[in-house]
C-alpha cells in the first residue's frame, strides 16, 4: 500500500498528463480526481503543491530538464515529460524531501505509467539534476 504522499505524486502525474493534453486548470483537474472513486487516497494539499508548482514554474523546470536531455524537448513522451517535470519540481523546490526519495518515486511512476525504458531515461535525467542542484545533500550522504 502506498503512502498518501506517494499517491499524491501518482495523482499529480495523471493530472499533469491531462493538463499537457487538455490545458485544463488546476481546479478542474482537482475536482475531477476528487470525484473519481478510482482515485487512491492521497494527500490533497501535497497534490496541489505539486501540480500548482509545476504549472507556476514550467519554464524553469523545462529549462532544467533540457540541460540534461539529448532529445528535442517537444519529442519527449508526454508521460516521461510529466514525470520529469514533477521530479524536477521536487528537486528544485522541495529541499525537505530527500533527493533519493524523489528519484525513486519518479522511477516508480515511470515504471507504472511510462513505456518499457522510461524509468531509465527519467533516472538518468533526474540523477544529473540532483548532482547539480543537490550536491551538498549528495556529498553529506556519501560521507556517512
User: What Rg, in angstroms, do the CA atoms define?
Assistant: 15 Å
- First-residue to last-residue Cα separation: 30 Å
Count of distinct strands: 0
CATH superfamily membership, which one? NusB-like
Overall number of domains: 1
Poorly predicted residue ranges: none
Query: What's the overall geometry?
Result: globular
Query: Looking at CATH, which topology would you report?
Result: N-utilizing Substance Protein B Homolog, Chain A
**Residue share in helices?**
over 70%
What is the count of helical runs? 8
Percentage of residues in strands: under 5%
Q: Major sheet, described briefly?
A: none
Write the H/E string, N to C.
Answer: HHHHHHHH
Named at the architecture level, the CATH assignment is Orthogonal Bundle
Structural class: mainly alpha
For this structure, what is the CATH class? Mainly Alpha
Q: In terms of quaternary structure, what is this? A: single chain
Instruction: Indicate the mean pLDDT.
Output: 91
